[in-house]
Design a protein that fits this description.
single chain, 125 residues, mainly alpha, two-stranded parallel sheet, 76% helix
Length: 125
């Protein structure tokens, strides 16, 4: 039974990594929450994979900073907002339905406020 539970946690971790990677390219799919969930799942199933994700050269540092400081660096906020708005505005340009354009812009504004509400980690931390 214990092996079965570990396998479920591990599968959840891998699925979360997959969704997190997709979130890097799809505007309304979040990346960091899925990667944090993956870290949690790997902590329950495989400490080796937890360390692997936390030491990853691209995504490890922001995850470690979130776990330690519960915040995001200014550069991370700026990059995420630039990519968010670039992808949303591109979508708005290609979508013909006015109501869908409005929904996209409202969601983008809400996500912007959400990102800005997080603590900003200073460079000396």
């Amino acid at each position: 039974m214990r092996q079965f539970c570990k396998a479920l946690w591990f599968s959840g971790g891998m699925g979360s990594v997959a969704l997190g990677v997709l979130g890097m390219f799809l505007p309304l799919l979040p990346t960091v929450p899925f990667l944090l969930l993956a870290t949690f799942c790997f902590a329950k199933s495989s400490p080796k994979w937890k360390e692997k994700i936390l030491r990853h050269p691209f995504i490890g540092k922001p995850l470690r900073e979130w776990l330690q400081y519960k915040g995001i660096r200014r550069k991370g906020k700026i990059c995420s907002l630039l990519f968010l708005w670039a992808s949303i505005l591109t979508s708005v340009y290609f979508v013909a339905l006015l109501w869908l354009r409005i929904v996209l812009l409202v969601v983008a504004a809400a996500v912007t406020l959400h990102i800005l509400s997080f603590k900003t980690i200073k460079d000396d931390e």
